[in-house]
Design goal:
The chain is of the alpha+beta class. It is built from two helices and four strands, in the order E-E-E-E-H-H.
């Protein structure tokens, strides 16, 4: 093995799961400013959002995150996008028609003043 490539500052650190409050004491080199007392000894504290004690894969719990599936959400967004595109196209067509009518009216007015 190569020398001096591995960290040498291993120390005991407490990892706390924020979902269920489970704590794990293990050795790590992670830097943290927070501390906690565990069994009367003060250790650095690292808070984690999910761990083996709260992850659905390890607990066997099935959590429903959303009622509507991803495919349905995608189809709804696509339909809303198409509707918005059609609305913009209709507004642009109406604006162009109004502009053309205004230009035609101005041309008619010029011709009537020439006569």
């Amino acid at each position: 093995m190569k020398k001096d490539i591995h960290p040498s500052e291993y120390r005991s650190v407490v990892f706390e799961d924020l979902n269920n409050g489970t704590t794990y004491l293990m050795r790590s080199t992670i830097a943290t400013d927070e501390t906690t007392k565990l069994d009367g000894v003060e250790y650095p504290l690292v808070k984690v959002h999910i761990s083996g004690s709260s992850h659905p894969f390890f607990t066997g719990e099935e959590r429903i995150l959303d009622i509507e599936g991803r495919v349905d959400k995608f189809k709804a967004r696509a339909a809303a996008g198409a509707a918005a595109k059609d609305k913009r196209a209709a507004a642009a067509k109406k604006s162009a028609a109004r502009k053309n009518a205004k230009a035609a009216k101005a041309d008619d007015k010029k011709e009537t003043t020439k006569k």
